[in-house]
């Protein structure tokens, strides 16, 4: 939040951004809140275009590495495949992604990340940034090869930031 998102956000009158970030961390750290990956991913195509892509594009324009944004995009592409790590079907709840046939691209033995990122309705012009494509391709590859937990550990350890506590 502090490295990839906060520097991009304009000030919002009446909102204490630091308090808001602490509240988010508390909420997502609470083991009593039972959120599901399916709910978080639901209609992700429209969420990415509104909330994540503008951050990625701005960071890339500034010459920065949106390391964790690449992780989120890669994880979503993995979700689009329609199968979890135990090869159990996942019901894709994403009207726009279904309409754009992204699950067909993601379900290939080796998903075509560049083709998915070329979907302008969701990813704007991200396909024009080879370094971002490479990062997302690597995330997707790791997710298939070593699973989500090990991918997350590796991605955190490889973060190009000094302090990534939030």
Overall residue-averaged pLDDT value: 88
Quickly count the domains: 1
Specify the CATH class: Mainly Alpha
CATH architecture: Orthogonal Bundle
Terminal CA distance reads 6 Å
Q: List the total number of helices.
A: 9
For the largest beta-sheet, the strand count, sense and barrel status come to:
none
> What is the string of SSEs from the N terminus onward?
HHHHHHHHH
Q: Any idea of the CATH topology?
A: N-(1-d-carboxylethyl)-l-norvaline Dehydrogenase, domain 2
Rg from C-alpha positions? 16 Å
Strand tally: 0
Tell the overall outline: globular
Domain Mannitol dehydrogenase C-terminal: 3-141
Protein name: Mannitol dehydrogenase C-terminal domain-containing protein
GO molecular function: oxidoreductase activity, acting on the CH-OH group of donors, NAD or NADP as acceptor
Pfam family, one: Mannitol_dh_C
Word description of this protein:
This is Mannitol dehydrogenase C-terminal domain-containing protein. This protein has a single domain, classed as N-(1-d-carboxylethyl)-l-norvaline Dehydrogenase, domain 2 (Orthogonal Bundle). It has 166 residues and is mostly helical. Helix 4 crosses helix 9 (130-157). It has 9 helices and no strands. The longest helix is centred in the C-terminal third of the chain and has 28 residues, at 130-157.
